[in-house]
Amino acid sequence: MGMAIAPARFALPRGRAGFAALALVYGVLVVVCIVTLAAAGDLSLGRNPWDNLLKSVGEFARPSFIDIWLGPERLEYRSDDGTLLRVEDRRVVEASFVAGLGRATWVTLQIATLGSLLAALLALPLAMLAARNLHAPRPFAWAARGLLDITRAVHTLVFGLVLVGIVGLGPTAGILAIALHSMGTYGKLYTESIESLDMASVDAVRATGASPSQVFFHGVWPSVLPQFVSHHLYVWEFNIRDSTILGLIGAGGLGLLISEAVSLFQWSRLATILLVVVALVMAFDALSRRIREALL
Fold first, then answer.
1. Residue 1's pLDDT band (boundaries 50, 70, 90)?
2. Cβ neighbours of residue 230 under 8 Å, at least 6 residues apart?
3. How far is CA 226 from the centre of its chain?
4. Got the DSSP string for 36-96?
5. Which of 55, 95, 115, 130 is the 20 to 30 Å CA partner of 105?
6. How confident is the model at residue 121 (pLDDT cuts 50, 70, 90)?
7. Which CATH architecture has domain 101-295?
8. Domain ranges (residues) in the chain
9. CA separation, residue 285 to residues 109, 120, 281 (Å)
């Protein structure tokens, strides 16, 4: 009888020598990237980079929302020959813009929240199939891992471009784009949490003759729930930032205002929008930190 030959597996080097070897490979990759970009002439900073930088910084230093209180009440726009084109009250105009900014912020939060929740729900059964220590049937495990890898590899913006063509402009495309990409991220995080379990408690529940669902809810779920919540908060926070970009392709929210400000070179308004994004992320980070501390 012939002996079965186990398939060879690729093993990464271990220990300090292994780390040094991996660091050397990484260093070589960085050098190759720099050299090839420089050889192609793609590392140029363009013309007058410092002048452009100082001009941009000067415009960013005065966010447009200040005009609500300090803007001129009669701003005249004239043609080159001095003809009066129009007159506007900057305080009224900027107040209207800030009100629209508030509505766009709410849409962005809706996209990130619903997209993250949908992704988490879709990823949970796939993570259970992909986790090696739960011993799901091999075809189902391979299919789950492949689906999670594919969705994680495709950027949210690419999903958004496709979905806008399918469901049309609006927040629905953004929600689905967030959900499809984040499903892969959630699935990987959930799978790693499940695989790090102490299987003794899981095997003890399984030994009682419990069904697979009972094994999960009594042996797996109590141990991984704090990690699952932490993962959800982290990805949710990331999706708040990511959803601001989806407006660039017509999914609504802050991205649409960012696109308008950039296309019209309205850097002071862009500064106002970015301040809102930063404040939103900081507030959510503080809230999620409190929730994670409460779970410890």
1. very low
2. 292, 295
3. 21
4. HHHHTT-----SSHHHHHHHHHHHHTS-GGGHHHHS-SSEEEE-TT--EEEEE-HHHHHHH
5. 55
6. very high
7. Orthogonal Bundle (1.10)
8. 53-90, 101-295
9. 14, 19, 6
